[in-house]
Amino acid sequence: MNEPVSGTFRDPALAPAARLADLIGRLTLPEKIALLHQYQAPVERLGLKPFRTGTEALHGLAWLGPATVFPQAIGLASTWNPELVRAVGAATADELLAYHRKDPEGVGRNVWAPVVNPLRDPRWGRNEEGYSEDPWLTGVLATAYALGLRGEGPGPMKTAPTLKHFLGYNNETDRCTTSSGLPPRVLHEYELPAYRPALESGAAVAVMPSYNLVNGRPAHLSPLIGDVLRRWAPDDILVVSDAYAPGNLTALQGYHADPPTAYAHAIKAGVDSFTQDDDRPEETIRHITAALDRGLLTEADIDAAVRHALSIRLRLGEFDPAEPYEDVTEAVVNSPEHQRLAREAVTQAFVLLKNQGILPLRAPVKVAVIGQLADTLMEDWYSGTLPYAVTARQGLAERGETVFCEGVDRIALHTPDGHVLAGEEPVGAPLVVGPVADRPELSWFDLFDWGGGAYALRAAANGRYVSAGDDGVLVNDQPGPNGWEVRQTFRLEERSRGALALRHISTGRYVTAEGGTLRLTDDADAAAVLTPELVASGPERAAAAAAEADVAIVVAGDHPLVNGRETEDRTELDLPAAQEAVLRAVHAANPATVLVISSGYPFAVTWAEENLPALLWSAHGGQEYGHALADVLYGDADPGGRLTQTWYRAACELPDLLDYDIIAADATYLYFRGAPLYPFGHGLSYTAFEYSGITATVDGQKVIGTVTVTNTGDRPGVEVVQFYTHQQRSRVKQPLRRLRGFERLRLDPGESRTVTIEIDLADLAFWDVTRGRFVVEDAPHKLMAGRSARDIRLSAPFHVPGERIPPRDPYARPLAAADNDEYDGVALVDAAKERGDAVRAEAAGSWIGFREVDFGEGAAHCVITAASTEGAVVTIRLDDPLFGHVAATVPVPRTRHRHAPAEIPCSVAGAEGLHDLYVVFENEGVTLSALTLHPARVRP
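== Exo-alpha-(1->6)-L-arabinopyranosidase ==
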């Protein structure tokens, strides 16, 4: 081992800042620029190795080969067990170290996990990647997972965890061009809190901005990166772009005219690493160099970004004399210990949604295992490769007698020229049209319904799925829907007389049979007219299997790569129609039917809730799913999982997918006023619990609450005790309930335990738009303890000493348009490219309002900062946006650009005393940044 050179970046005795300063001082400017790409170039003269950001590790190590596959992130969250989540992160880190040791350049130790976007809308295609619709719970679980990934104790980090995706990202629909409107309260109370704990604790050391825009500005250019995120972190953090997002700044988003300008803005905003052009950094280097040459960047800007990048490598121990974690070998990958952890994780993740006594199952019992997901395990886009798979069918078969039925329709398709035929070779063959002769099975296809109009066809001839190759020819050669560009799914478009056409979802092209071979065509008129023949009914076969069993277990749900995935949101919450039909047929044949849902998101299973005796849910659970399911169904384990997001009855209960203002829209469990199908925090046990003796006391700067929980049943059970608060009087609209703490308990029959929660009074603050800061109001509150957000067993009042928010002083500072109290018909946009928010009128007659404005003895005049490329009129009214007193009518002249507003003075009439102030936009397209009011006389 070589001894470190004293006084250099390789000397671990020096402070990290001194080591970084020494290293940066040794680098040339071209060498520094080359460190700002995902693939950081080596600096051989200094002994710096290549470094690559971005190893995927969302719920286990991904994309590198077989590795332990744990439950999806939403499944890990449903355990409500941060210590378990931390252990999964630690296991993932160890497996990554083993792969890194084998391939140091290909497997980097900067991991892109966890995802901390609050799950605002269950239709989001990437729902399974997040933890919860609650930002506080998200922060707790993300910190636990990141801490496991990072490693605890002294010494180098095992990995460098990256929080993603910053900020306001919950839609795949036009994700690179849509803007998420985040009013100040939603930003500070809902979105930002999910990121803070992992950064502030040092568990996460990197952040990835999101593809979308926020208030009109690309997230990669957000001033919040420097203003907020870097200030939270105790050390340097690395900010990595999302894949190909830098190119969007000039292409899809058109925010800047050329790449050097865009890249310069990104670096100044805080981006340190450009994930662009895969492993080809040349263009990125060229754009950054051009920005320097044009004076858009300075070498100091480059040095700051380089310091952030090298700081991570320093903390990973790369520059130390000894290679860290050399003792971690391939033996840890899918080790028996990790297999046991995977089983424990999915066991704890199961949520019992409903049970009328049918569960737990009592052996001996004959079980019918039915459904599209009953004998398969799915990998999602960020899963590892399953080293083995224990399906529901396999797990239950180990317990006793089972009968299995997949429950899908088997069909044949024919044209006027013959049947569609598949090859029986294991590698498949092009689909052709021809005579059936004496081999009808060559014309049979099993039809899988994955919802949203997406179907997959599996050839009975060889058990392989039909896929469209690069040449457009249909071949039965795939194990199932797979890959980034899923080429195995089709839409069935109806034609006359029961016929249909197949449309390939990935390409949008139609299936034609010209020349006797099925292939894709752009010509809709050339689509083959296919008549389906039912060979065997999925519901009928499922019902027959259920009728011969004591209990029927229907395993239904989603395919993680179809209808709800990265790049594709859902439009509805319904269970796929064919799966619902199987469920109903099974129940009609055998009332002792249990629905087991395996999915990365909620379903509106309203019929099942009303008719079935039991429902159980988990996310896709990884390799040990079947064992864990059997453990829960047979009562070896109490179902201790709880929902971390609301399950709604229908999509119509949700606001528009692009409406991010959860406060105005009454969205998430915090504000939703309806009766959900299953509330946030819901989950049943096989035993019963009683709550008693709740207390709530304000002690100094804390609220201390207690409650006693007793297992009143006859078997051990798991309870997740949940504490919520509600502020009962406020200047603003408050959440109906907000999670403040929880504890997961395992209690024996008759056992009691007292649970204590401590809440900092500062955590009861909300963002005051009148003064631009957090405020704790003097107000009565209620502490609630229960089994879910809607199953509150006990509550206790307490009073918080705080401040009273006075009326707005319109003369103390300008009234920022974005700091309004209410609005109608406006969108939040960027006031300037670098920073600042404004509002833009989306229609004539739209408005914003400021409540309780104290004009004192009167306002004399006002200066409006506004822009309109067409010219417009703005009206200031008092007390009502439609009929209120007109205090001013302000013509807005044409401006050359919305980022070049005019300052327009006007006189104000009748604005005296206390009033609500409304700014009404008489034309669409006008952008308002602020109003600056001046009093009739100067206040003493």
